[in-house]
Design goal:
Helices cover 43% and strands 14% of the residues. It has two domains: 7-59 and 160-330, Rossmann fold (3-Layer(aba) Sandwich); 61-156, Rossmann fold (3-Layer(aba) Sandwich), CATH 3.40.50. The protein is α/β, with parallel strands linked by helices. The longest helix has 15 residues, at 190-204. The structure holds ligand F0G. Ligand F0G binds next to helix 4, helix 9 and helix 13.
Length: 357
C-alpha cells in the first residue's frame, strides 16, 4: 500500500499544486468511515460516520490548512492570521509551528472551548481574545490581511476549501460511489461548500455515478442561512458553529440547491441529546457542533424525510476532547469517591445498582 504523508500527496492531481508547492503534511486525511451500530439500524439506513476528529489537531480543518499553508509558503509569507471559533486557530497554530511561521489568531473571548484554546497556546500562537463574536473577529482579520503582508487562512482562502474537498474523495473512494445524503454541520459554511465541490469533481471525472444531497445543519440560535438573514447575536452551546454571518453563505446555498438538499436548524437540546447518544450508543465522542449533523438526520427522519435503505454519511467534524466543559456539564455523571480499599469497592459493586446512566 502506498504511504501518503497527507492529503496533498494523496490527491495531488486534484489540487492546485505546482513543483514549487511544498508538501506540507502531518498525516491529515485518511480518516475512518465507521458504520453506525445503533442510529443507522433504528432509522433503517446505511449510516456511516466520517471521523474527522482523527485529524492531527482533532478536526477537519487540517485538510484545508495544509493546503493554505503550503501556498502561503510558496508565496514567501512568514505570518498567517485567522479568526476562529477554535478549530481553525488550533490547526493554523500547529502548521505554523511546524513550518516556522508566526500565527496570529483572533478568537471570541470566553466563547471558545478550552481544548482549542489550549492547542493555540501550546503551539505558540499569538492569541487575541476579541471581546465580541466570531463575525466581529473575521471582519478585522479580513481587513488586516489586505493591509499587511500576512496570509489569511480562514475558509475565504480558496486553498482551504480545495484541501477540504479531499474528504469527499475519500468517501467515494471507500464506498465506491457517493452516498445518497451527506449530513454536515454548518457554521462559516466552508465545509459544506468544499464537500460539494469534491463530490462534483469526482462525478465530472466519472469516478462516481451519483451525487449526494447536501444536508446542512445550523444551530437554531445561530442559523442565518435557515432564516435567510444575518443573526446579530448568535447563541448556541455548540460554540464551533456560533456564527451569524457565514463567509461562504452563497456557496452553501449553491451546494444546497444544486444537490436538491436542504439546510435546516437543530436546537441545542437536540444537539446535546445526540452528542450523548453518539458517545453512549456508538462509542463516538465528538464535539457538540459535530453532533448537529446526526441530530439533524434524526430530526428530518422524524419529520418524514424518507431515509430507508439509503446510504448516508454524517460528518463528525471534531473530537469531543476539545470541549471538556460541555462534557462535564451535560453528562450528569457524579463521581463516586471511594477509599482505596478492596472491600469498600466490592461493597459498592455488589450493593450498588450502578449509576451514571
Ligand atoms: N464543526 C466544527 C467542529 C467546526 O469547528 C466548524 C467550524 C464547523 C463544524 C463548521 O464548519 O465553518 O466550514 O461551516 N469552525 C470554524 C473555526 C468556524 O473557526 O474553527 P464551516
Amino acid at each position: 500500500m502506498a504511504h501518503y504523508e497527507g492529503v496533498i500527496d494523496r490527491y495531488r492531481e486534484y489540487l492546485p499544486v505546482t513543483d514549487a508547492t511544498p508538501n506540507v503534511a502531518m498525516g491529515e486525511g485518511n480518516t475512518p468511515l465507521v458504520k453506525s451500530q445503533s442510529i443507522g439500524p433504528e432509522l433503517g439506513c446505511d449510516l456511516y460516520f466520517k471521523l474527522e476528529g482523527m485529524n492531527p489537531t482533532g478536526s477537519f480543518k487540517d485538510r484545508g490548512m495544509c493546503m493554505a499553508v503550503a501556498k502561503a509558503l510558496e508565496d514567501g509569507k512568514s505570518r498567517l492570521m485567522c479568526a476562529s471559533t477554535g478549530n481553525t486557530s488550533a490547526s493554523a497554530s500547529a502548521y505554523a509551528a511546524r513550518y516556522g511561521m508566526e500565527a496570529i489568531v483572533l478568537v471570541p473571548a470566553g466563547e471558545i472551548a478550552l481544548g482549542k484554546l489550549a492547542q493555540a497556546m501550546v503551539y505558540g500562537a499569538r492569541v487575541l481574545a476579541v471581546r465580541g463574536n466570531f463575525d466581529d473577529a473575521l471582519e478585522i482579520v479580513l481587513r488586516a490581511t489586505t493591509e499587511m503582508d500576512i496570509a489569511l487562512v480562514n475558509s475565504v482562502n480558496p486553498y482551504r476549501l480545495q484541501g477540504q474537498k479531499t474528504a469527499a474523495f475519500e468517501i467515494v473512494d471507500e464506498l465506491g460511489d457517493a452516498p445518497h445524503m451527506l449530513c454536515i454541520p454548518v457554521g462559516n459554511a466552508g465545509n459544506i461548500t468544499a464537500y460539494w465541490w469534491g463530490f462534483k469533481e469526482y462525478w465530472e471525472a466519472e469516478l462516481s455515478k451519483t451525487l449526494p444531497r447536501m444536508m446542512g445543519f445550523q444551530a437554531e440560535g445561530a442559523s442565518p442561512i435557515v432564516q435567510g438573514k444575518r443573526v446579530k447575536n448568535p447563541e448556541t452551546i455548540a460554540t464551533a458553529i456560533r456564527i451569524g454571518n457565514p463567509a461562504n453563505w452563497e456557496n452553501a446555498e449553491d451546494a444546497r440547491d444544486a444537490s436538491k438538499g436542504a439546510i435546516s436548524a437543530v436546537t441545542d437540546a437536540e444537539i446535546i441529546d445526540t452528542y450523548l447518544r453518539l458517545a453512549r450508543d456508538e462509542g463516538i465522542f465528538c464535539e457538540p457542533a459535530s453532533a448537529a449533523s446526526v441530530a439533524g438526520l434524526i430530526k428530518i427522519a422524524s419529520q418524514g424525510e424518507d431515509v430507508a435503505g439509503q446510504t448516508i454519511v454524517c460528518v463528525i467534524t471534531g473530537n469531543g476532547l476539545k470541549d471538556p466543559s460541555t462534557a462535564e456539564s451535560t453528562a450528569h455523571v457524579e463521581l463516586e469517591y471511594v477509599e482505596p480499599k478492596y472491600d469498600t469497592v466490592m461493597g459498592l459493586l455488589t450493593n450498588g445498582s450502578g449509576r451514571g446512566r
